Amino acid sequence: DIKGFAFDLDGVIADSARLHSKAWHQTADTVGTTWTPELAENLKGVSRMDSLEMILKAGGHENEYTQAQKEELATAKNTQYLELVKTLTPDDVLPGMKAFLDELKANGYKMSVASASKNAPTILKQLKVMDYFEGIVDPAKLHAGKPDPEIFSLAADVLGLAPANVAGLEDSGAGIQSINAAGELSIGIGSELSEAAVRFDRTDEVSLAAIKAKLA
Ligand code: G6P
Ligand code: MG
Predict the structure, then answer these.
(1) pTM
(2) Pick from 130, 210, 110: nearest CA to 202
(3) Is 146 annotated as a binding residue?
(4) Within 10 Å of residue 36's Cβ, how many Cβ atoms?
(5) Ligand 1 neighbourhood includes 119 CB (under 6 angstroms)
(6) Where does substrate bind (predicted)?
(7) Helix (H, G, I), strand (E, B) or coil at 211
(8) Where are the alpha helices (DSSP H) in the chain?
């Protein structure tokens, strides 16, 4: 029985995946890596430094930068990302997700956040949805990011629930793998998430009734 939900943030609650992409696209231009839709998709759910490594590798530039230079590139990306984040308002909660959070709250489900983003608290505050959640997993404390199960296991701990009683929501393939490996029910939002136990094309399709119908 599902008693709680662990939410990814970027691309699930917040319309911020496009802002990450915009900022990383600029980084790719800076280092001379061609920006492609596949690269953009593969960066979803991946930590800041790992994302930079993937961008460098995609263009064969992985050996051209010192650790200090890599940290500078990552900091520049985050500075630009935070400029874009400033424009986010409660209207940038993705379609239907506010209603879904309200539905879960009204029905006594517990909620937590399992995002790789160190900016998650800033974004949740800006979207005015912080109060829905029991807690947020701190990505700085992780030994391994998505697709490792650690983050979604910790998201169940935050809820005080066994993984079997938790459903995870994700827009990334790495995130779906993390949920599955944690032994939770995976709910994918997006077209290319074949490993998800339940899948929706868009956030505005997600509701308790729709999840139950897909599991039946
Ligand atoms: C999420 C996003 C990724 C982002 C990562 C780290 O997982 O999907 O695109 O790179 O968080 O975010 P941060 O805000 O800490 O750089
Ligand atoms: Mg995401």
Answers:
(1) 0.94
(2) 210
(3) yes
(4) 11
(5) yes
(6) 8-10, 24, 43-48, 51, 77, 115-119, 146
(7) helix
(8) 17-31, 37-43, 48-58, 67-85, 97-106, 120-126, 150-159, 173-181, 208-215
164 pLDDT band, cuts 50/70/90, is: very high
Residue 12 contacts residue 189 (beta carbons within 8 Å):
yes
Both structure tokens of 41: 């998709």
Cα–Cα dist 170/178, whole Å: 10
Most ligand 1 atoms within 8 A of CB, residue of 25, 39, 48, 137 to mutate: 48
Helix (H) or strand (E) holding 111: strand 110-113
Q: Is the pLDDT of residue 136 over 90?
A: yes
Instruction: List CB contacts of 10: < 8 A, sequence separation 6 or more.
Output: 16, 17, 20, 44, 115, 117, 123, 171
Q: What is the pLDDT of residues 91-111, one digit of tens each?
A: 999 999 999 999 999 999 999
Q: What is the mean pLDDT of residues 8-33?
A: 97
**How many A from CA of 63 to the centre of ligand 2?**
28
Q: At what angle do helices 48-58 and 67-85 cross, to 10 degrees?
A: 110
Ligand 1 neighbour 4 (Cβ under 6 A): no
* Closest protein CA for atom 16 of ligand 1: 48
Question: Which residues are part of the catalytic machinery?
Answer: 8, 10
User: What are the tokens at 85?
Assistant: 């984040």
Question: Do 74 and 49 form a contact (C-beta atoms < 8 A)?
Answer: yes
